[in-house]
C-alpha cells in the first residue's frame, strides 16, 4: 500500500467518530431501543458494541506495535453484548469512549515509521495479520454499523410512520371558508 492510500485510509479511520455522531443525529432517540428482530442489535446496543470494540482495537493496535508476532485475544461481540448488560449502560459515555480511544489510536498510527506497518500478530481465526490490513478492517467497522443503524431506522419507520405536520393555514383544509382581503382592507 502506498503512503497516499494509507494517509487517506487513516484520515477516514480518524473521522469515523464524527461520522457516527452525524449519523446518530438522523435517528430519533425514541427509536434507539428498537430491535428489528430478536437476533439483531438496537442502535443503543450497536453504540455499546462499538465502545467495547474500540477498547479492544486500542489494545490490539498497541500490541501490533509493541509485541509483533504475538497472539491476540479473540473478541466475541455477541458474548460481550449478552453478558455486559448493554441495555443499562450509557450511550453518551460509550460515544465518549469511542471518540477518545479512536483519537488516541489515530494519533499513534499517523506517527508510525514505515517499517512498523508490516508488523504482524497471530489472530486465532484469521492467522497472521499485518497492521496495514488490520487498519483497513477497522476503518470500515463504524461505517458498517452506521449502515445497520439505517436499516433499523427503516424497519422502525414501517411501523411508526412520521406524522403529517399540522397546518396553520386555512387553505390546507378545503372545508374551511377561504378568507380574502382586498387592498382596501389594509
Order of helices and strands: HHHHEEH
SS elements, strand count? 2
What's the CATH H-level superfamily name? dinb family like domain
Radius of gyration: 24 Å
Instruction: Give the N-to-C terminal Cα separation.
Output: 73 Å
Q: In total, how many domains does the architecture comprise?
A: 1
Give the biggest beta sheet. 2 strands, antiparallel
The name of the CATH topology is Four Helix Bundle (Hemerythrin (Met), subunit A)
Shape: elongated
- The overall pLDDT average reads 88
Please list the strands of the largest sheet in the order they lie side by side. Answer: 1-2
Count of discrete alpha- or pi-helical segments spanning 4 or more residues? 5
Percentage of β-strand residues: under 5%
Low-confidence stretches: 176-186
| Architecture (CATH level 2) name | Up-down Bundle
CATH top level label: Mainly Alpha
Helicity range of the residues? 40-55%
Tell me about this structure:
- This protein has 186 residues and is mainly alpha-helical.
- It has a single domain (3-162), classed as Up-down Bundle (Four Helix Bundle (Hemerythrin (Met), subunit A)).
- Helices cover 55% and strands 4% of the residues.
- Strands 1-2 form a two-stranded antiparallel sheet.
- A hairpin with a 3-residue loop joins strand 1 (120-123) and strand 2 (127-130).
- The model is unreliable at 176-186 (pLDDT under 50).
In short:
With 186 residues, this protein is mainly α. The chain is 55% helix and 4% strand.
Amino acid at each position: 500500500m502506498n503512503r497516499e492510500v494509507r494517509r487517506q485510509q487513516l484520515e477516514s479511520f480518524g473521522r469515523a467518530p464524527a461520522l457516527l455522531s452525524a449519523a446518530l443525529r438522523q435517528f430519533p432517540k425514541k427509536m434507539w431501543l428498537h430491535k428489528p428482530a430478536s437476533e439483531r442489535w438496537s442502535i443503543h446496543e450497536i453504540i455499546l458494541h462499538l465502545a467495547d470494540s474500540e477498547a479492544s482495537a486500542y489494545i490490539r493496535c498497541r500490541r501490533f506495535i509493541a509485541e509483533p508476532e504475538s497472539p491476540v485475544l479473540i473478541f466475541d461481540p455477541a458474548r460481550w453484548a449478552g453478558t455486559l448488560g448493554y441495555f443499562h449502560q450509557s450511550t453518551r459515555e460509550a460515544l465518549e469512549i469511542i471518540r477518545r480511544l479512536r483519537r488516541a489510536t489515530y494519533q499513534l498510527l499517523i506517527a508510525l515509521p514505515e517499517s512498523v506497518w508490516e508488523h504482524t500478530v497471530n489472530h486465532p481465526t484469521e492467522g497472521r495479520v499485518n497492521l496495514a490490513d488490520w487498519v483497513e478492517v477497522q476503518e470500515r467497522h463504524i461505517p458498517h454499523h452506521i449502515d445497520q443503524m439505517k436499516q433499523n431506522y427503516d424497519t422502525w419507520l414501517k411501523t411508526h410512520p412520521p406524522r403529517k405536520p399540522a397546518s396553520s393555514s386555512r387553505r390546507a383544509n378545503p372545508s374551511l371558508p377561504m378568507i380574502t382581503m382586498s387592498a382596501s382592507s389594509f
